[in-house]
Amino acid sequence: MIHEFEPTHFQTTIGSHEPVLRVASGDVIRTWTVDSGGYDRHGNDITEGGNPQTGPFYVEGAERGDTLRVRFERIRPNRTRGVTGGLVAPNVVDPGFVPELGPRNSEDWWELDLERGTARLHDPPPGLQSLGELPLDPMLGCFGVAPPQGQAISCATSGEHGGNMDYRGFREGVVVDFPVFAEGGLLHVGDGHALQGDGEIVGTGIEVSMDVELTVEVLKGKAICWPRAEDESFVMAVGNARPLDQAVQHATTELLKLLRDDHGLDYRAGSALLGQCIRYDVGNVFDPAYTMVAKVEKALLERL
Amino acid sequence: MIHEFEPTHFQTTIGSHEPVLRVASGDVIRTWTVDSGGYDRHGNDITEGGNPQTGPFYVEGAERGDTLRVRFERIRPNRTRGVTGGLVAPNVVDPGFVPELGPRNSEDWWELDLERGTARLHDPPPGLQSLGELPLDPMLGCFGVAPPQGQAISCATSGEHGGNMDYRGFREGVVVDFPVFAEGGLLHVGDGHALQGDGEIVGTGIEVSMDVELTVEVLKGKAICWPRAEDESFVMAVGNARPLDQAVQHATTELLKLLRDDHGLDYRAGSALLGQCIRYDVGNVFDPAYTMVAKVEKALLERL
Amino acid sequence: MIHEFEPTHFQTTIGSHEPVLRVASGDVIRTWTVDSGGYDRHGNDITEGGNPQTGPFYVEGAERGDTLRVRFERIRPNRTRGVTGGLVAPNVVDPGFVPELGPRNSEDWWELDLERGTARLHDPPPGLQSLGELPLDPMLGCFGVAPPQGQAISCATSGEHGGNMDYRGFREGVVVDFPVFAEGGLLHVGDGHALQGDGEIVGTGIEVSMDVELTVEVLKGKAICWPRAEDESFVMAVGNARPLDQAVQHATTELLKLLRDDHGLDYRAGSALLGQCIRYDVGNVFDPAYTMVAKVEKALLERL
Amino acid sequence: MIHEFEPTHFQTTIGSHEPVLRVASGDVIRTWTVDSGGYDRHGNDITEGGNPQTGPFYVEGAERGDTLRVRFERIRPNRTRGVTGGLVAPNVVDPGFVPELGPRNSEDWWELDLERGTARLHDPPPGLQSLGELPLDPMLGCFGVAPPQGQAISCATSGEHGGNMDYRGFREGVVVDFPVFAEGGLLHVGDGHALQGDGEIVGTGIEVSMDVELTVEVLKGKAICWPRAEDESFVMAVGNARPLDQAVQHATTELLKLLRDDHGLDYRAGSALLGQCIRYDVGNVFDPAYTMVAKVEKALLERL
Fold first, then answer.
1. What is the ipTM for the molecules in this complex?
2. CB contact under 8 A, C246 and A242
3. Architecture of domain A2-80+136-219 in CATH?
4. pTM of the shown model
């Protein structure tokens, strides 16, 4: 079944909030998200900022110990202006270098050409006048399911439940699996970026409102610890924590478990494979919790 | 001038050791390296293990405050067997998961087909019997220049002087710049890997002896703080430290400085560019110091 | 006014839950807490474990931007048995050492002599048979106020709002100040320890139910960022984060601000004082977020 | 035998340098150290700065796998002026707070009254005019033995060999044990502080030249991994690393091993004891490597 959902209010925490819609496993949801500041497709400020989320969506049958699978069929900017932070964040440069960055009062506006799929700085700072167009690569920065114990966790950070991971790989076509902690899973989605570098180091991607279409599926009795994902080429496991070293630990452990669960590899075989074939991608290094993605090529797994 | 250099002894620290050869800026050095355990092309154990280095090479004219540029023209395995660690390292998984990894007494041997450029597990652990061939991607794991203050630093770790960075991107064709701390720069090279996943998470790549050809160049009066590099597509800056968060800080700061030095971008413009375009690659997450590479596409810089 | 409060239900998150009692600034609350596992003074398991909290208490007049001051008049174990974890936690030893710790299935019971103020292992593991009595030093491990944005945060961790800090210095007589994020402040208290080493490295102190008496006070218009505290000898600032380096940063920054706010020292003078006189105490190093306390002697401040 | 040693040159790395004196196990060495900047008792700048070390002292019979025990009989400032950094270091405050600290061009001079054992700011910054005298607590910030593999490691940092640990507890009367990595152990001493807060957070203690008397002893066949120490009240183990979390891991692991080696406690019993009785002290949080000390009361161990 396909649900067209028009949001009327938004959440700035991910938690066990009253669901806005109940859907069945296999259903499709078509909806939209405001940008991280609460602005919609018309540039109207319709809700308080802080990565406001559309949802939560209750998926029938999802219970603690299951996995909620989300396939993003469509993630498309629905307006032609986006904004980015103007300076690299203090926490991603050497502490003694911070004062050299200068005053933190700038931001940049970008013009999006949705036909051509490009972005262009509206008023480039000196030195970037000839930068021209960058190809869009739309993604969702913050989405996830209700965390355990009835917690409600700020959309500024991330955890086992997902949240503000700001990973470029969470683009159209990706499938993301979440551990279910609360009845119905309670999926939230928001924080669209038309484009973003690794790490979200200026504290933003090109922040924009989005049209989103996704399919949900409940994997009964499949228990995972951290988000997992799959795109055309890779299977992935996500770790969210600080320091990044701990995010590496979470992601690597979860990828070893994924290889065991889905491909029958014990940890000795998983080690032999990952040792020479693992790839790490950096998600957010701006938030309270940082994000690391560990992944391995599907083409390799298909040989086994 | 082209130097053919036959090493007779090796260093397991990078330091202000007696040079084995003096060369001029612009010269080419053709030499070879033993593997991380001290084994040569014939599989003979000719020196103590610990990433033994060929060198140091003294480059005439290099002085503190200059940059030593090294272009790797050739990095080629020169034997057909390589070895890898058998288990993911304890520090890259969750602390409570370590005992589940099992006993740490395994290793894997790989057959290299140097014609076809492939590697194959000699005796695959159960589950990987049908893995088949992996394409080689030869690189050097450990190389660098004498560190400041007459220090001699173990080839197990890394720092501003380079060292055991284990970055897959340091393959044939890459150009790496080092800050010069000691007269002559004193370049050391070693620790060849026929193939390696990100992070060197089993504590090794496919360890192998290598034939190496490189060109050195002194950039007089050009001062840098951390290694920088360039390949066909990217300019890069390298940070070596723990936690990985600090390696991110070093690499990001150095990349902002690179954009200022080489492309005239102030930190405000550098931020606007990197915010949406930076890429991070993970080097070593096994050593005492971890390695992070920050990079940006040359095609973008050419527009400016 | 003095309130005698009998709790009937408990919270395992700290959040904007329905208050159990409304009190005025200056009021005294006499109540009790279950232990971390949900067991009361009679050893009855009356609620789900996970540092269940008594409260929240709504303090009239407390608003975002104020400070809520809590003075602990009394923190007394109210039963004679307590439990501790049997092994040092995997995250506080070297990763490669974890398997040497052995199986994680042990715990220890302690007999408390409330008259004499001592604890004794009920069945000491071999080697500790003659350990004898340890003096009690009762404290609360987890307490705090509702966090910002309507969040509800697990009592397993900590943040700007307090939470599971497990600091030995939070004993009878201490005064702790919290930033107010929600109307009424919403104070929660729980997780009593009859005794605890630094770091809570076995994952517990001697877990016990407690009788607690405290006084609340609203400091209108006083804005702080992190918990501050004061005991007989020291003023303190608390940082909660991982890695511990970041907790050091939070605590040191807050202590510099405390010296500015309360003692008129600019950061240059604060630096000159703290440089030679600061003390750091380690709170929890077991939780998702670690705790560091920065402090300075009141006797020094009284000279200024 | 008592050696009176007059240094004529100094080392700014700790390494396998040519010994300045050979002594026997049990011998006493009376010598002096310059301050961290290379200034002697007369305030003369006699050597390059960077924590210059007196030594190394070769102790007959010390070999890899032994322990070198050093008892500090005397650590006394030998001049009446000392200097301290003027601002808290950027790495110990929140990244975004760094610019608020102001310009980093200040330092403070202190007058030492060696009779009374006190220090007084020469020209107190505004707000500290009435601070008056602080009691001296002289200590050595940087000392250690030659590290493994012939390394020479900067006196700005620390490791298994000791080095720049800046721990207040390394004062007169302390006994410090080092793992021996090189023949003769090769003890270096320097970097005296007349007084220092925890963490050395302004990058200095009160830097001063010192008269030092110490006794060396070789513990044949006793192998340790990290420095251990003992004072009147505590036995201790030291971890040096970043992040501080890793220093916690090193120190805690080493203290568990110390309890096993010297007191016959297996890790289960060691855990039961340390869980409720361990204390952590913070050494340096300014250097490339941070220092954490884990300790337990000797009075408790004497009961066993």
1. 0.98
2. yes
3. Sandwich (2.60)
4. 0.98
